[in-house]
Amino acid sequence: MAHPSQLGFQDAASPVMEELLHFHDHTLMIVFLISTLVLYIIVAMVSTKLTNKYVLDSQEIEIVWTVLPAVILILIALPSLRILYLMDEINDPHLTIKAMGHQWYWSYEYTDYENLGFDSYMIPTQDLTPGQFRLLETDHRMVVPMESPIRVLVSAEDVLHAWAVPALGIKMDAVPGRLNQTAFITSRPGVYYGQCSEICGANHSFMPIVVEAVPLEHFENWSSLMLEES
Amino acid sequence: MSQDMKEKLENYRTAPFDARFPNQNQTRNCWQNYLDFHRCQKALIAKGTDVTPCDWYLRVYKSLCPVSWVGYLCILCSLMINRKQDQQTQT
């Protein structure tokens, strides 16, 4: 999850997010190198007493500073397209979960076998127990079996919302009347937090998302318990 | 009903990838399966044959369609109708 003074992404919990993280590192390194070079040149130009009034053109340097940026762009584009197609691969999900956005909570529906559905409200700050995270915890978490491909269908019941979990590399708009599909696999068990990512009214900041990845047996026990409760 | 169909239904995990709807927007996928289920039911009931083949569409639209779009009652109804038809064709 996010922590104070954080600069980079959260630790990746899915293979796609790992790829995105590495691509971001690669691209940012290129950006730092170019920025350092440019800054160096600016400082060097500004701090010299030498002047040169007689160079009018130079074919060689023009070729270099045309070809080199093109090569750099290709070095960025190839991994980028690779990840784009990776994210678009056909996967065979084991489970479908529907995440419906409301003002101001999420509801989850697991209807592959039985009709399991529940609401997920944020726990108010005054009701938190020590160790829980402010504005991130919910009363019911979206529990999923770990290391299984999951399909999530995101929609909304009233206004636009967006379902986002940064650790899984997911953000999907929740549009009323439309069913948006996304998929993920959790590489490891854990609890992953996210927040509504589309302005949706007064309590937009107070409708978080919590995904809990557990082994399959735990998931089966949890779903039986939830069915009994409802 | 064929053995393949029975096995397919018994091994049902979730709605499989449908090449007719390869993209992000799955609204039409839900709608199509919902429509196909009701048309299948109507056709097979009119014919007086076993309606279990329609169960596939039922499972798929139940997996994909939000409950508020379809209604719990509608899903329960469909399940009950299917079971009643099964019993009728067996007797």
From TrEMBL, chain A:
Q: Which reaction does it catalyse?
A: 4 Fe(II)-[cytochrome c] + O2 + 8 H(+)(in) = 4 Fe(III)-[cytochrome c] + 2 H2O + 4 H(+)(out)
Location(s), subcellular: Mitochondrion inner membrane
Give cofactor(s), names only: Cu cation
Provide GO CC annotations from the record: mitochondrial inner membrane
The record ties this protein, via SUPFAM superfamilies, to:
Cupredoxins, Cytochrome c oxidase subunit II-like, transmembrane region
- Listed CDD domains: CcO_II_C
Q: Give the cofactor binding note.
A: Binds a copper A center.
InterPro entries (alphabetical): CcO_II (IPR045187), CcO_II-like_C (IPR002429), CcO_II_C (IPR034210), Copper_CuA (IPR001505), Cupredoxin (IPR008972), Cyt_c_oxidase_su2 (IPR014222), Cyt_c_oxidase_su2_TM_dom (IPR011759), Cyt_c_oxidase_su2_TM_sf (IPR036257)
Q: Where are the transmembrane segments?
A: 27-51, 63-85
Q: What are the Cytochrome oxidase subunit II transmembrane region profile domain coordinates in residue numbering?
A: 1-91
| One GO MF term | oxidoreductase activity
**PANTHER family tied to this protein:** CYTOCHROME C OXIDASE SUBUNIT 2, CYTOCHROME C OXIDASE, SUBUNIT II
Q: What does this protein do?
A: Component of the cytochrome c oxidase, the last enzyme in the mitochondrial electron transport chain which drives oxidative phosphorylation. The respiratory chain contains 3 multisubunit complexes succinate dehydrogenase (complex II, CII), ubiquinol-cytochrome c oxidoreductase (cytochrome b-c1 complex, complex III, CIII) and cytochrome c oxidase (complex IV, CIV), that cooperate to transfer electrons derived from NADH and succinate to molecular oxygen, creating an electrochemical gradient over the inner membrane that drives transmembrane transport and the ATP synthase.
Q: Which NCBIfam families match?
A: CoxB
Protein name (Swiss-Prot/TrEMBL): Cytochrome c oxidase subunit 2
Supply the source organism for this entry.
Polyodon spathula (North American paddlefish)
Q: Which gene encodes it?
A: COII
TrEMBL record, chain B:
Assigned keywords, A-Z:
Disulfide bond, Mitochondrion
Record's Gene3D superfamilies?
Cytochrome c oxidase, subunit VIb
Please tell me whether the keyword Repeat is annotated for this protein: no
Chief place of localization: mitochondrion
Q: Which InterPro entries match?
A: COX6B-like, CX6/COA6-like_sf, Cyt_c_oxidase_su6B
Signal sequence segment: none
Output the superkingdom of the source species: Eukaryota
Q: Where in the cell is it found?
A: Mitochondrion
Q: What is this protein called?
A: CX6B1 oxidase
